[in-house]
Amino acid sequence: MMNNQPKVDITILSWDRVDDTLKAIDSALSQAGIDKKIIVVDQGSKPEGLAQLREHCAKDPAIHLVCNHENLGVPGGRNQAALQGTGDYIVALDNDAEFVDQYQLAKACAMMEKEDDLGALAFRILRFGSEEDDHTSWSYHQDMLEWAEKEFYTDRFVGAGHMLTRKAFDGINGYDADLFFLHEEVDLSKRLINSGYKIKYTPEVVIGHKVSAEHRVAWTGGRWTFDVRNKTYLHFKFRTFFPTAVFHTCLLIWRGFRSGLYSSTLKGLWQGLCMAPRAIRCWKKDPSVSMTEQSKAYFDSCSPTQGMSVWQRVKMRLTTAKPVPVQPKG
Length: 330
Hints:
This is Glycosyltransferase family 2 protein. By secondary structure, this protein is an alpha/beta fold.
């Protein structure tokens, strides 16, 4: 008998936090109505945790475990995980998250199958064990309180829980591993849209996220360095209008300095500038970094500044630019 269920590769990156990872794996295994493969990529967990992970993954043939000796970063790990499967859809699930029930991915597949040009589906993310939306996982332009329960097209998705079509993912050669950490979803979203795909947020597919809000909003100097580095690199890669790039970079520097992250800010800026040559090389070899008339119209339709004057846009950006929420010492 032929299996007509949609084929889904569920990818989970693991790095310590083994108890949470095992529960994420079990949550993925519980998904019904799909032909599933769970791909776990361990990025260098401690030996005792890794042994526990190996034992757990050996219990079910649907689980495929890859063990790295070093951390390849989020985009590198996700690329490696995707290469292990052949499913029509690729799902990323954070290792501290779980699906709220066993029917979530079947619903996601049904939604994806209705729209040929849908490249990514962004899931609703709740605080684990509650009906409260995880505001630290809300990166959309819309107000969370008004839009969390509504479906809408967007120009981004959140990495903690989402589905991609393999055709779209492979068509743009996956994630940019050079980013290593932070903004890999922004980069992939831009390239998907430039390639003619749409991204939709849905409140119908839900995961519970376990990371506390207090932990998520605190930034360290190292995290801020990656933030500045990658935003600078992406300005070059996507050929941001020069005055716009300068304005946003100045805002980054102001935010970093105001928070006392002087060296982290300058380090990130320097590293981003040093990455400019590889960003520029993308202009010739990667068509998905170039905006088309169609993608420009799509981005404009998603932009919170649509219809605003230049001064109104500047004023909005200045109003929303806040100091970095730095992790307190001690």
